[in-house]
Design brief:
This protein is mainly α and 179 residues long. The chain is 68% helix and 0% strand.
Amino acid sequence: MVSLVGFYNSLKREERNWFYSAGFGDMNRCRVSDITGIAGNLNFNKHYETALKLLDYGFEYAKTGEEIAQFHVGYALNYEKLKHIEKCNYHCEEAVKLKHTGTYTYKRLIINYTKAKDWENALRICNIVIEKATKSDELKKANKPNIGYMKTPLNWGDFPEYAKRRKEFILKKLKTEGQ
């Protein structure tokens, strides 16, 4: 359990109000997942800098790969909104390295790399998504545990199809540009 009292006391009055309205619960006994949840609520309410402060405060308490990945997702969400694309990409890449099972980081990287015409990295992320989805489908057919955290299944819906369409688009671009 983590205490957020010191963090709360370090905030300005306005930030304290935002933090309070983000639904922190018991400040003396927070789980690490509560911290990323509160940061998500702050992000939703457009308090990006305060969310980043909270993530900075709580990052040292993240111990498992899943917790660390979730912090990176929180950072990426806020940096995206602040238009700090390189920082957003860095944190998305870190979550991908930790095999985060959510779609946000993969989709954000595909979008950002495509906008920057960084075709190599965009293709790399598309291929990761397609490979994970293929492996997940094979495991489902074999009635074996899936590849998500805690053996939870990947429920990506039509996201792999999105990655395949983006890959086709990128390959066409590369062909027309003669690369």
